[in-house]
Amino acid sequence: MSAMRFQAVLFVGLAVAAAAEGMMPLTGHVDLNSNWIPAGAEWESSVTDDSETERSMDDVFFVVTDRPYALTAEGSGGRVLRSSNSVFNFIGVAAGEPVWVVPKSSNPPENAAVGFGDLTTFAPYGKYLETEARVLPQPQTVALPWVRHTYQGMTYLGTGDGKFSLSDRIGSTTVVWVSPENDPADNFLMFSGTHLHLNWWFTAQGVYRLTFSPSAYLGPGKTNPTGSGEPYKLTFAVGPVAHWQASHFSGAELEQEWVAGMMADADGDGLLNLVEYGFGLDPRSGDVAGELSGLGLPVHSLETELGVTYQVLEFPRRRSEGQLAPLEYVAEFTGDLSASEWAVGVDEEVLDFTGDEAVLNELWEKVRVRLAVAPGAERGFGRVRLVLPE
Fold it and tell me: Chain centroid to CA 371: how far?
């Protein structure tokens, strides 16, 4: 497993605060709505959440947590191991490898449960017998007003090999609508006025921006096509790093590695986005203070106990329970910056936040690491190195 490594504390660069804002996370039941508007002869797409609030797809992202999936367990997440059944080869990873899924049913409450639907049928689409082999059963015996959502591709922001698939389970048959090969036939068909959830598969943690375009026939029958509508983009944030990125950057910026990537410095304050994520800073502000009291860059100090002098590093650390490959924090010390070797602190104390800062304890813990200073040493330096696994 590869990793990206660098020193966490940098104090160079001119801060240039960015104006764009992040997206809103959605969990729970979510409907994707696409409707043909006759008055404007155009398609309109939106998202409706549990509150029945209609939102722009450009303003929201769908949460997929990085914890093992369990049907009934509290805290269940979106991570499963790919089945050995060859029917799942379309996902693009080997059997036994981890994948993340937004399932068709029994979705964990902290994840988004995403389905296709429409708020209202504004146009009487043409009804016809759909012959697409993936529309089951075939042959169809009832003419229905079909709407097609054509998959146009994706962008991926992350450190893994991100692939996306969309499938359904009808009886004992697995129907693959979208696969990583991005076949031109990749699309999804549903008839207007209905609502349907599918299985959304992701092969790595990261931010996925999926592009679809709706189309239909206005009739009679399979005549008078609307043409492809304006493409809409769906944003899925798989895992905690992606969640943080989507919360701080716009959809357009999430397609720009040099802005929203973890090795970028969005606000020009000399701190990479990974440092801002690791210590709870705001990547948009150009300020090195934490977003909340108790968060912020490591503090380096000296203390003496029973006649022994120690270098000490204190810093906030993100909790990692249940995560497949959490961010790693490595506290290191040296007495000479010209030396190539740093010693890892071995005396670690993990504490909860208290008082007004106790609100941090769900996601954060307070860490204190120290290392004894060598006798006769005149100087001491400390750093916290962050390692982001693939």
Answer: 36
Q: How far is CA 15 from the centre of its chain?
A: 27
d(CA 278, CA 298): 10
Per-residue model confidence as pLDDT tens digits over 311-322: 999 999 999 988
- Our CA angle for 72, 389, 347, nearest 5°, is 95
In 3D space, the residue among 57, 389, 97, 21 whose CA is nearest the CA of residue 236 turns out to be 57
Cα dihedral 212, 95, 66, 256 sign: negative
Provide the pLDDT for residue 11.
Answer: 30
Q: What is the pLDDT of residue 118?
A: 64
Strand partners, 296: 289
d(CA 160, CA 205): 7
C-alpha distances in Å from residue 145, one per residue of 85, 142, 149, 188, 267? 35, 10, 13, 14, 49
**Burial class, 186, CB count within 10 angstroms (exposed 0-12 / middle 13-18 / buried 19+):** buried
| pLDDT of the residue at 14 | 34
Domains (range + CATH), the chain: 21-246 (no CATH), 299-389 (2.60.40.10)
Give the predicted TM-score (pTM) of the model: 0.91
Residues with pLDDT less than 50, the chain: 1-19
Other C-beta atoms within 10 Å of 220: how many? Answer: 11
Contact 129, 234 (CB under 8 A): no
